[in-house]
Structure formats: structure tokens, C-alpha cells
Amino acid sequence: MVFSCKSALKKLIAHIDPMPSCSVEVGINGPIAIRHEIFSSEYRCRILYISDIHLTPKRLPILCERLGEVLAHTVPDLTLLGGDIVDSPRGLLALPELLRRLATYPGPIAAVPGNHDFDAGVCRVSATIHDAGIHWLPDGPFRFRTRSERNVIVHGEMHSNTTADALHILCGHDPEIFSHPLSRRFQLTLAGHYHGGQVILFRRQGKEYPNSWFFPWSGTRFSEGNATLLVSRGVADTLPLRFNCPREVVLCEL
After folding, report:
1. pTM score, two decimals?
2. Are 181 and 197 in contact (CB under 8 A)?
3. What value does the CA radius of gyration of the chain take, rounded to a whole number of Å?
4. Which of 76, 132, 180, 254 could form a disulfide with 45 if both were Cys (CB 3.0 to 4.6 A apart)?
5. What is the pLDDT of residue 20?
């Protein structure tokens, strides 16, 4: 019995991916990491996916500063806000100023809600988004033409129609949407909602543990057929404590 346990443990360790030096982060004052993902080189387009801002009035100054640094450095063609924009109803007080600051940088912005936005009052979140001149994806897809003269359409709903003459991107919040068969109609899906994954003890075959024991899409990138899912670990959390899980945005090269 002891030999069998040791053998199983050795096999598990042999398949664990090497981890960088351990890191602990408390609070949200540090820089936000920019994770660069290459999806394609055909479209000559850069999309910045920002998820899980978890805005509160107290966090407003540092989030404006850190996200401003990211936008100034990346200069995306399109910025997507992937839900949990506010942390609670108190965040609604600071939301207009955050959106005003984000809108000062070049390029359009589109957004979807997350579970915290629904809890805070999604009608008030969407009204503030509209007032800021930001595209609210639940109202309909966002269409644009890239520098390569190719069409890209970003959707906020799985039930949206797709066509063969464009790259279709599904902008979501919870990566569980990738479990739905309808998500396979989109070449690229973006998601966040990494709560519970804030503590990463080890990685194995692209998945991050212990969260992967409970949620199948706990990792950064997954592929099923011609569909790809990119998962962001997010900018902030209700409980700002992380272990081996850097706060990040995803810069996706199309």
C-alpha cells in the first residue's frame, strides 16, 4: 500500500509543470501584468481584454493609474471589459470616473457584465456604460474592420448569429461558457472570473491546481477543435490576496 502511494505520487510529480519562484501578493497596488497571447497574424489587430476590475471608491485612484499604464503601453485597437467591473453597489459611485479615464485613451471600448455587476445592479452599470459612450455588448455585437481589411465581430451572447466572412469573438465573463456547444461557433472566446484560482499550488498540462479539481477551465488557454478559450486571471478580487496568480490583462494578437 505504501509503495503504491509513493509510486502514484512520483507519477503525479513527474507531470507537474515547473513553477516560477513563489509569489504572494496582498492588495492591488502593484503593477498589472500584461499577458501576451498570439491567436493569429492575419488580422493585424490587438485586442486588450480587461476582466474583474472589482471597482470600489477606495480603489479608484490606483486602478485608474494602473489601467492607464497598461493602455498607454499596449495601445490596443479595441479594449474589452470582461465583467465584474464593479465589486458592489458602492463601486457604482466610482464607475463614471473610471470609464471617463479609460475613454481618454485611443480605440473603442466594449463591455459585458459579470456576476458582481448583476448583484450591484446591472441596469445602473449598463446605463453608466452607455453614458460613457462605451458599447454594451448585451445590446448587440461590435463590428470593426482591421488594418488588414478583415472583418472582426465581437459578441456578448452565445446565441448571436455568426457568418463565414468574419472572425467571430465571444466576449464573456465566466469561462464555463466554453462548455456550451454554441461556443464552438466562435473562433475565439475570452473569459475571466478566476475566483478560487487566486491560489495556484501547481500546474499540470496547462491546468492550474487546486482550482482545476473543481472547475474544468482553470488555466490560461484551452483549445477544442477550431475554437480557442483564453482565460484572464483578472485585475483584482473582492479579497485581494493571491499566491502564484499574478493580476493581469490579456493582450491578444489577431
Report:
1. 0.91
2. no
3. 19
4. 254
5. 57
Are residues 147 and 45 in contact, defined by beta-carbon separation less than 8 angstroms? yes
For 3-22, what is the mean pLDDT? 49
Output the nine-digit C-alpha cell for 21. Answer: 519562484
Q: Going by C-beta distance under 8 Å and a sequence separation of 6 or more, which residues neighbour residue 200?
A: 208, 209, 211, 243, 244, 245
Length of the chain: 254
Q: Which three cell numbers stand for residue 91?
A: 463601486
Q: How confident is the model at residue 14 (pLDDT cuts 50, 70, 90)?
A: very low
CB 77 within 8 A of CB 107: yes
Domain ranges for the chain, please list them.
31-253
The yes or no reply on domain 31-253 and CATH 3.60.21.10 is yes
* Grid cell locating 240: 485581494
